Amino acid sequence: MRQRPLRLGILSAEFFEPTLSRGRGGFGKNVRTVASYFRTHSELGVEVFLIHGFRRSPPGAVWTSLDGIPLLMRPAGASRWSDWITHRRLLAQLRLDVVLTMDFSPPFRGALLALPRTPAIVWARDPRPPEDWAEIATLRIPGARGRPSDSRPVDATCFRSLYALARCTRRPLRIAVPAEFIARKVAPTYGIVPPTVYSLPGFLDVPDVPRVKARWPRVIFLGRLDPIKRPWVYWELARALPDVEFLCLGESYYPYEQDGGWTPSDPPPNLRVLGHLDDPARAELLASSWLLVNTSIHEALPTSFLEALFCETPIVSCQEAGGLVSRFGRYVGRFDGDGLAAVPHLADAVQRLLEDPALRTDLGYEGREWVIRHYNASRFLAAFSDLLSGMGLRWRPPIGHPSIPVVGAKNP
């Protein structure tokens, strides 16, 4: 029987808090969801510590907190060597039982090397193999020169040395994915062939607001207003369908001026740009929308897709997400470059779904049922417990611990 809480360190570059990381993206949303869940369910016996994989602060100011959870940043001192020694000492003081990384990025190596024997789980949310980077490399902003900042590739094959060292030292190191279709991307992204890629589904903290659709056709965009998301395609889609209300929720990570001049401005009259909204207002707009539209050049399994389906809102997208979009909406096909060639295809798919209320209702209900069945807290806890058990750590959620409620009846 465990005598003290399991001490979990979550290593991430994002925390869904703009004072700590660039903007609010899905990675950070998942970090806060998991960390807050453990904090508010003390009966689970998990003590969480957040570790910033990017942010550097003076050695005397490396500690802060988020949602009442301690957060450690990387020291920024006289030299990289001394910084790493300080970081190693601070991490050792946490006496972590396991580290969970939100995806993997080369800067994470320092923290993982500083804990050479601590079991670790790499939660590969969006591993990008060369074929994905080749697609992203075509990205262009209309009328701008050069490549946008977020289209430049990141080489994650440095993970090989960490993996080889873990095998030599018998450090338990696992790779887990939130969806089966992502597993095939692990080997070419990280340059390794693990014997097993494990399943670790995420879960949502979206308030279960009334799912009452707007009286008139309403479409929503939810995501970062950054080049990789190609928000200008959404702008043109709104122009193509002037009788439909378009909502845009999200903020930008990157200053567009450095990428050649496109800015999220001059919206058509039927497009409202609302920036970032917190729940429940955010969930209410998702639930009132008839469709979610995604215009990205690349996605893995966006949290926005799961949130939309939880709110019974079908999806129209240029990204298939492992078949999810075709199943609960309309996949319009792949369009590289600036994506403007997708506009008539998106407009046709949106128009057809707007004109078929029975189909939209069925897709929304079935999508919500699927999300609740596959992406709930109970499934996460069970998979997390199995991962820990396979690494020699004894932790189990209490028997009968409640999960997200089951789906109720369809909305009238």
Task: Outline the structure in words.
By secondary structure, the protein is of the alpha/beta class. The protein has 13 helices and 14 strands. It folds into two domains: 214 residues, Rossmann fold (3-Layer(aba) Sandwich), CATH 3.40.50; 153 residues, Glycogen Phosphorylase B (Rossmann fold, 3-Layer(aba) Sandwich), CATH 3.40.50.2000. Helix content is 32%, strand content 17%. It has an eight-stranded mixed beta sheet with strand order 3-4-2-1-5-6-7-8, with helices on both faces. Strands 11-10-9-12-13-14 form a six-stranded parallel beta sheet, sandwiched between helices. The longest helix is centred in the last third of the chain and has 18 residues.
Quick tags:
about 400 residues, Rossmann fold, eight-stranded mixed beta sheet, six-stranded parallel beta sheet, 14 strands, about 15% strand, globular
H/E order of the elements?
EHEEEHEHEHHEHEEHEEHEHEHEHHH
User: What is the number of domains?
Assistant: 2
Overall average residue pLDDT = 90
Query: What is the CATH topology descriptor of the largest domain?
Result: Rossmann fold
Give the CA-CA distance, first to last residue. 49 Å
Q: Based on the coordinates given, report the CATH architecture of the largest domain.
A: 3-Layer(aba) Sandwich
Largest sheet: 8 strands, mixed
Give me the CATH superfamily of the largest domain: Glycogen Phosphorylase B
Strand content: 15-25%
Q: How many DSSP helices?
A: 13
**How do the strands of the widest beta sheet line up side by side?**
3-4-2-1-5-6-7-8
Which structural class do the helices and strands define? alpha/beta
Counted beta strands: 14
